[in-house]
Amino acid sequence: MPLESSPEQPQPLRVVVNALKDYVERTGAIWVEGQVIQLTRRAGQVTQFLTLRDKLAEVSVKISTTTAVLDAAGPLVEGQVVTAWVRPTLWSRSGSLTFECRDIRPSGEGRLLAHLEQTKRALQAEGLFASELKKPLPFLPRRIGLVTAEASAAERDVIENVRRRWPAAVFEIRYALMQGANCALDVADAVAVLDKHPEVDVIVIARGGGSLEDLLPFSDAGLARAVFAARTPVVSAIGHETDTPILDLVADVRASTPTDAAKRVVPDAAAEAERVAQARLRSEQAILGRLASEQRQLDALRSRPVLRDPSATIDIAAQRLHDLAGRLGRAIGVRLDGEADTLTHTIARVRALSPQATLQRGYAILSTADGVTITSVTDVMPDETIVARLLDGEIAAAVIDVEPADQPSDENEEP
Amino acid sequence: MSTPKQATELSYEEARDQLVGVVRELESGSVPLSEAMRLWERGEVLAAICQRWLDGARATIERAKSVQAG
């Protein structure tokens, strides 16, 4: 709608803007398809904003909408493809162009993903993904349960890699559809059967890579519940590293690929054999060391003098005996010497008292013929026979005369 | 030692501990002579038990190793 204008006769700005506003708003509401960029929900606000970008071209616009509209759309994530019913609006105050959105919904693939997201949130709320409920895998399972497609690359990958690590591994395989409408049910059944098997200690669900649609059954709520209910630990090995179906979250262990699953379910036989050999070597060294130490101790004990040469004990006793005998001898000698001394002295005294010395000096012992010793002149009468004992014999003599020595009293002169 | 076990019933540790005791008694010199001779004889018996045990243990290990290798 052309407006006349020139540098001399310009149109007022408001006129131009209002005219444009009319023009734009005449377009009316229209359904557009685009990608959600920059969606930040502002809490407590009615009006919400997001940016919508063309799927292919570098074209993006600002969308304003309400909380109610956003809530009605279901979970929206950035990058999601949506269809939105928008009405273009030109704000005369700022001249800016915005689109008011009355309805927004995930499109096609977006709808799928949104549904998945909903399922995931529901199951999470039920506690199916809780890490404390995850069961540990056995170190060495008696049998390995395997749910996979017959003659598939996934089956081959799992079996080959497991056997390489642990050649003696035994599998219990249940083939199932790994895509399509009946897949979820089929896999759930297979899991249930393997779970009941008394020797199956771990279950691996293996499938190679595929499109979103192909892997969809592995995000099925029913399958997730079946796996959650299994008492045997379950390993999920679906698709490639980047695929994360819901099964990955509910399984006890998530393997990024079927090959990775093989590493998780069995130990490496070569590494284990090495470890055992090491342990054996160390225990052998330990016991030999202990024996050597005990032997050394025993040798030390045996070389002690008291054991090696018992005569030493006897020698000690003999020495003591010898010492005692010596002391005994010395003791008796001392005693004898003492006695001898005493004896010598006594003899000398006896000898001193003996009349022998007197006799030696020339004295005689006089006695009557009866043998009574004469000690006084009054003991004898003249003409009486007396015996004189000299040192070397006796003399028989007669008394010739008796003469008393000069005495003050005369009573001895009695005839 | 309250009641000495029969020599054949002794474990290695028991025999060795008793041997240590015998040596200690003999070295103390406070044992009567008749007792000393008896002690020495027992010491020899105990030492023989210990040595037999050690030799047996070594033989067992050698046997096990040769079985493993062969």
From TrEMBL, chain A:
Question: Which domain of life does the protein's organism represent?
Answer: Bacteria
Q: What is its main location?
A: cytoplasm
Alphabetical UniProt keywords: Cytoplasm, Exonuclease, Hydrolase, Nuclease
Q: Which reaction does it catalyse?
A: Exonucleolytic cleavage in either 5'- to 3'- or 3'- to 5'-direction to yield nucleoside 5'-phosphates
UniProt domain OB-fold nucleic acid binding: residue ranges: 17-105
Stated EC number for the protein is 3.1.11.6
- List GO molecular-function terms, semicolon-separated: exodeoxyribonuclease VII activity; nucleic acid binding
Question: Exonuclease VII large subunit C-terminal domain: which residues?
Answer: 128-346
Which locations, inside or outside the cell, does it occupy? Cytoplasm
Recorded GO CC terms: cytoplasm; exodeoxyribonuclease VII complex
GO BP, one annotated term: DNA catabolic process
List the InterPro entries. Exonuc_VII_L (IPR003753), Exonuc_VII_lsu_C (IPR020579), OB-fold_nuc-bd_dom (IPR025824)
- Record's CDD domains? ExoVII_LU_OBF
Subunit notes for this chain? Heterooligomer composed of large and small subunits.
Family the entry assigns: Belongs to the XseA family.
Q: What does this protein do?
A: Bidirectionally degrades single-stranded DNA into large acid-insoluble oligonucleotides, which are then degraded further into small acid-soluble oligonucleotides.
Q: What is the name of the protein in this document?
A: Exodeoxyribonuclease 7 large subunit
* Primary gene name: xseA
UniProtKB/TrEMBL annotation, chain B:
Q: Which GO terms describe its biological process?
A: DNA catabolic process
Q: What class of enzyme is it?
A: hydrolase
Its UniProt entry gives the catalysed reaction(s) as: Exonucleolytic cleavage in either 5'- to 3'- or 3'- to 5'-direction to yield nucleoside 5'-phosphates
Q: What are the annotated GO cellular component locations?
A: cytosol; exodeoxyribonuclease VII complex
Q: Which GO terms describe its molecular function?
A: exodeoxyribonuclease VII activity
Q: Which InterPro entries does UniProt cross-reference here? A: Exonuc_VII_S, Exonuc_VII_ssu_sf
EC number of this enzyme: 3.1.11.6
Against Pfam families, the record matches this protein to: Exonuc_VII_S
Which UniProt keyword terms apply here? Cytoplasm, Exonuclease, Hydrolase, Nuclease
Membrane-spanning ranges: none
Broad class of the protein's primary localization = cytoplasm
Localization per Swiss-Prot or TrEMBL:
Cytoplasm
NCBIfam families documented for this protein: PRK00977.1-3, xseB
Q: What does the record give as the function of this protein?
A: Bidirectionally degrades single-stranded DNA into large acid-insoluble oligonucleotides, which are then degraded further into small acid-soluble oligonucleotides.
What family is this protein classified in?
Belongs to the XseB family.
Listed under subunit, the entry gives:
Heterooligomer composed of large and small subunits.
The name this protein goes by in its record:
Exodeoxyribonuclease 7 small subunit
